Amino acid sequence: MLKLENVSYSYGKSGAAVLSNVSCTFEAGRLNAVTGPSGSGKTTLLSIMAGMDKPTQGDVFINGDNLGALNLDRYRRETVAMIFQSFHLFPLLTAMENVCFPMELNGVTKADAIPKAAELLSSLGIGPDMHKRYPSNLSGGEQQRVAIARSLASGAKLLLADEPTGNLDQANSMNIIDILKRLAHEREYCVVVVTHDTDAAAEADTIYKMRDGKLTLSNS
Q1: Phi, psi of 19 (to 5 degrees)
Q2: Cβ distance 145 to 174 under 8 Å?
Q3: What is the spatial distance between Cα 216 and Cα 12, in angstroms, rounded to a whole number?
Q4: Tens of pLDDT along the chain (220 residues)?
Q5: Are 47 and 24 in contact (CB under 8 A)?
Q6: What count of other Cβ atoms lies within 10 Å of the Cβ of residue 202?
Q7: Which residues face 190 on adjacent strands?
Q8: R_g of the chain, CA atoms, integer Å
Q9: 3-state SS string for the chain
Q10: Maximum pairwise Cα distance, the chain
Q11: What is d(CA 141, CA 95) in angstroms, rounded to the nearest whole number?
Q12: 91 half-sphere exposure, CB direction, 13 A CA radius
C-alpha cells in the first residue's frame, strides 16, 4: 500500500542528512513497526509518509500513485491518519465531537456523523457514558482510544502512529497495540507504528530498525 524508493531528507541550508536512501514497503493487512534510538530519523520518516514533509530525494508511492503528484491536502484529509503520543484531542470538544470533527471536515452532516462516531467509539470500548466527556475527564488509555476512533472516522486506511503508547502504562499500551493489530488483520488497514517500546514492537508483523537515517528490515 505504501512504498518508499531511495528516500533521503536533509535539513535546509545546513544540509544535515536525516534520512539516507530509505527503501521499504508497508503492506495493508499488516502491523508494521519502526524502532530505533532518538534522533535516528523515525519521526521524519513518518512525517514524509504523512505528506507533511517532502523528501530531498526519492519517491513515496501510495497504492501505486506518486505522492508528489497528488493533492496533499486531500491525501491528509482522506487517505492517511495520524495517531500521536500525546493524543492531540481538541480539549474543548467532547469525545463524540472529536470523532465527528474529521467527518464534518469531509462534508458529512452532524446528524449523519453522530451515529457513526458512536459506533466507532463503542467498538473501541468508549461507551455512551463517556461520549460527552471532555478529554481532561478521560484516562490516558481512554484518550488514546478516542484518538484512534477519530483517525478511523476520516475513512483513511493508512494509519501512522508516532509513539502511541508513550504516555500509557503497560496494560493500556498492549491494549492499544492489540487494537492496531486487529485493525490491520481484520479490517485490512495499513498500520505503521514508530515506537521505543520493545514489547509493542514485538507484536508487529514486520519490524524495521532505523539508525543514523538508514532503515533495515529486522524481520518479515
Answers
A1: -125, 145
A2: no
A3: 25
A4: 899 999 999 987 666 789 999 999 999 999 999 998 888 889 899 999 999 999 999 999 999 999 999 999 999 988 999 998 888 999 999 999 999 999 998 899 999 999 999 999 999 999 999 999 999 999 999 999 999 999 999 889 999 999 998 888 888 899 999 999 999 999 999 999 999 888 889 999 999 999 988 999 886 5
A5: no
A6: 12
A7: 158
A8: 17
A9: CEEEEEEEEEECCCCEEEEEEEEEEECCCCEEEEECCCCCCHHHHHHHHCCCCCCCEEEEEECCEEHHHCCHHHHHHHCEEEEECCCCCCCCCCHHHHHHHHHHHCCCCHHHHHHHHHHHHHHCCCCHHHCCCCHHHCCHHHHHHHHHHHHHHCCCCEEEEECCCCCCCHHHHHHHHHHHHHHHHHHCCEEEEECCCHHHHHCCCEEEEEECCEEEECCC
A10: 52
A11: 13
A12: 2
Taking a C-beta distance cutoff of 8 angstroms, is the pair 188, 29 a contact? yes
pTM (predicted TM-score): 0.89
Q: What are 158's three cell numbers?
A: 493508512
Angle separating helix axes 140-153 and 110-123, nearest 10 degrees: 130
